[in-house]
Specification:
2 copies of one chain form a homodimer.
Chain A (H helix, E strand, L loop, with lengths): L8 E5 L1 H11 L1 H17 L10 E4 L4 E8 L3 E9 L13 E7 L5 E6 L1 H19 L6 E5 L5 H12 L3 E5 L3 H11 L5 E4 L3 H5 L4 E4 L20 E4 L12 H6 L1 E4 L2 H7 L12 E2 H5 L13 E4 L4 H15 L6 E4 L10 H7 L3
Parallel strand pairs in A: 1-6, 7-8, 7-10, 8-9, 10-11, 11-14, 12-13, 12-14
Antiparallel strand pairs in A: 1-15, 2-3, 3-4, 4-5, 5-6
Helix pairs in contact in A: 1-2, 2-3, 2-4, 2-10, 3-4, 3-10
């Protein structure tokens, strides 16, 4: 066979290589690095092509493509959501992503994104908390102790200096799992029996439960003044975690209003409910936290630009390493008009 | 490392493996097989989700995602179009595709699609000609002798019994390349100096030139009655190959009117210009060729369902072969809530 040219080979990062890369860099360092890439992209938010995600719905789930571009690179994530998968021993969510060069149209990276999405979600939360949480926040209530909980905790430690996390989940096995995983990682872990106990003394309240329907994980009377709420779990139509009263008392920050009004906590509110776009705070155009008694709320649903930042980071970071293999994915005849000749020559 | 489960591994067909597979099956057989899969999907056309393609445009090109689903499988193709690439030694078009299981959301195939698209385009043309060309057609004029020309010729041979092809390209080197590639493959090849010479005695006129702008490859007076025109090259806004007068005298068949009215030959015609959807002919709901003197015209722009058929075929055909490798692309923790534990265990 003829060897394909260098540009016809696409670097691929497998799940195994992604995990090796995380340990090579260190999990707290990769969370800091990712937060930096996300922050940089939020600063140049207006540059990005904000195509709505393309969803294909079925009775049992959804498959989505989330593309975006900054004019130099183009990225998309494939992600599915199938709640019933868990009972069949499969993942609810799997994801992979691709980055391409806008100038040539050639893909430059293919990577697993289940692990990478967990990392970028936590890095984005902590980056937002840096702007929105009370200065010197040291304690977080982590309500919902599923797949995001350890990543959230370590990102808050790495990026804003969190010292203590107070865990609550209605499933005590999830809390035990999270506490065990965080052992020895430099954060004090307190396992709590009620959400009320978890939020005692916490400056940051993170909600990330798996409840499928509109639920009230935090009721209005549970939330006092001067806290930052990091709401991760309300992320699709019909799925919210906060009482509407909390939203009314908070200054709400969102990624992209047209998407968040459909998928986020604010789906409960009127269409003209006032929100601030997080990128406006990060680029210095609007204020984040303005006072000690203010309740700030990051109503996070996850946006394509965060995946784009993560893809950019992985592309940059794997250069010169062996954390990828090269895939012969693009046909590359010597003469572009002679695809058939390339095929015939492969016969011998 | 822990071995990922079987479903977390995605079969990947590289360019090299695709070419090996084509030679293993035989190029005419694979064209027949693909035509069969495309025909089956045209028969159940109404089942399909017909999302418009999602395009990201830049000054120098376009990157598109073309998704579709039949409710059981979901497929998409990534394809770029960068005309300036050729002058930089790169391909104008590269493509890859993915097929997933709608029930689980898990990908089941990743494959190169530059070679596969060339094959499915030719198979679709020949499948359409089976319904639309004069019975017993033996001679085709092939105007434009680029990357599609050999595939078109062999598909017409394999599927409708073509005996002779008459080549014309304004670049005589392209004609020489095509003639050389077709040597010994069982079709009489006649290289012609003018388009007029090429269409002499041909029952099928295939146009597939690389002209970027609205051009008139076939003028009105060149096309007599009783022929089938297979128009491949007019496939994006501002790119057409046929004189409008030919369209007025023809019965025009298209894949999907909303797309073809923007991208196809009929972009020259009024919005209410009458066309027949090819699937209606193939499913027996409408007539194809109705008489000896009729001019039929397949105004083909390429549609996501044809890629879907090709992906289905490759998925089915590689089972039990070694024409693929498996990619560890999907994170698969034993406990879906314990992604972090999976990451930590990978450390050792």
């Amino acid at each position: 066979m003829t060897q394909p040219s260098e540009k016809a080979l696409v670097p691929f990062v497998s799940v195994d290589n992604m995990m090796r890369l995380v340990h090579h860099i260190g999990i707290e360092q990769i969370l800091r690095d990712l937060a930096g890439y996300v922050e940089d992209d939020f600063k140049r938010w207006e540059l990005f092509d904000k195509t709505p995600r393309v969803a294909s719905h079925s009775d049992v789930g959804v498959i989505e493509l989330m593309p975006t571009s900054d004019g130099e690179a183009y990225g998309f994530k494939y992600v599915n959501g199938h709640p019933k998968n868990t009972s069949e021993g499969l993942q609810t969510v799997t994801a992979f992503g691709l980055l391409a060069d806008v100038y040539t149209g050639y893909p430059v990276l293919l990577t697993e994104m289940t692990m990478l999405t967990a990392l970028r979600t936590a890095a984005t939360s902590a980056m937002a908390a840096k702007y929105l949480a009370p200065k010197g926040s040291t304690t977080m209530a982590m309500i919902g102790n599923g797949a995001q909980s350890e990543f959230q905790t370590l990102a808050m430690k790495a990026i804003i200096g969190l010292k203590s996390v107070r865990l609550y989940d209605k499933d005590t096995a999830a809390t035990a799992k999270c506490a065990r995983n965080l052992e020895g990682l430099g954060v004090e872990v307190v396992s709590c029996k009620t959400p009320e106990e978890a939020i005692e003394g916490a400056q940051i309240l993170t909600t990330c439960t798996a409840d499928k329907q509109n639920a009230t994980i935090l009721t209005d009377n549970m939330v006092g003044s001067g806290v930052h709420i990091n709401a991760i779990g309300g992320d699709c139509p019909g799925k919210t975690e906060l009482a509407a009263g909390i939203l009314s008392r908070s200054d709400v920050f969102v990624e992209y209003p047209p998407q968040t009004r459909i998928e986020g906590e604010i789906q409960q509110m009127p269409e003209d409910f006032s929100v601030t776009e997080l990128w406006e705070v990060i680029s210095g155009q609007k204020q984040g936290r303005t006072g000690d008694r203010q309740i700030t709320l990051f109503d996070s649903v996850g946006f394509a630009i965060e995946d784009f930042s993560a893809l950019r980071y992985i592309r940059d970071r794997i250069k010169g390493t062996d954390y990828f293999i090269e895939l012969d994915m693009l046909a590359d005849p010597d003469d572009p008009r002679d695809l058939f000749g390339m095929l015939q020559r492969a016969k011998s």
